[in-house]
User: What shape does this take?
Amino acid sequence: MKTVVQVILNLGHGGMEAMAVALAGGLDRQRFRSVVVALDAGGEHEVVLRNSGVESYVLSGRRLWSPGFHWELAALLRRLHADVVHTHHFSSLLHTLPAMRLAGVTRRVHTEHSYQYLEPRRDYRRVLRAIGAMTHAFVLVARSMHAFYKEQVRVGERRLRVIPNGVDTDLFKPSNGTAAKDTLGVPANAYLVGTAGRFFPEKDYGTLLRGFAAFAATHPDAHLAMIGDGPELLSLQALAASCGDGIAARIHFLGWRTDLPDVLPLLDTFALSSRSEGLPLVALEALACGVPLVVTPVGDLPEVVADGTTQAGLLFPVGDHAALAHALAALADDDARAVLAKAGRARVLQRYSQAAMVDSYTRAYEGLEVTS
Assistant: This one.
């Protein structure tokens, strides 16, 4: 039995963390011992890992120039008898590589979840090119990332792979009819638009609020659920308040939720106004719950929304709140949403299932070819 150790920065909120935890829990326990190590901090996912029987360890923080940190992490990897170490994000790889070499780890897999943070940083790209060459498989979560990592970071084609994020479609599924919108403080008959994520600038939630306000002005039954938290929370709340009492009262800031499998099916439409993405896990989770998307054409989202024959949602230009309002109005019709919702869940079942993701990473761990 091989021991696979995934290394992430923390066990708190975020799509990357949720994906790593889901992967750890999905590995075949007859073939793998699954472990997760957080370099900086714990968080809500510690409970998820414990409930799924996956070991987890939380260190006291990254210290690149501290020999003691690297010896501590190497000792842990030796104690775990790590056969495979799977790092997520540039910083995790940078801080874990010395320990992997000290511990004699024989298989090194790395996943990048975005590329935008590297665009202005040529120094980071150079470092990642060097340390990426010491991995056996360099994985990207979205096809739209491939050209950047091949041409700008210059990761060797032999080790470069694309493994899309995957969703547990038994957990994320349409509502069974027992849940109610009023549990969120929203009228049961509301047309509920929702979003979920970190309130960071690249998510451009200001455009979402402006677009919703324009739409809600002519749709008195419309409500918006803002699920998440982050540094822009106060400015977004102020922007919502400026929309006027009639609309501000219909914008609900719900904070972080640990019950997304129960909340997402309550939405009528899921919206993302991001300026940049790779393949956002929460958008796939919404589709799996039978909720159509209204999203910007960034990352792999155009491929998710339309495959040439069927649609799972609508696209609108980055920063165009008027186009967003128009898209929300187009999906105010129950029949229109139903068609997209059916196509969306089918898309996830066919191409973005957790089982497919786990199978592809299993092949990467074992040194087998992965279909990109």
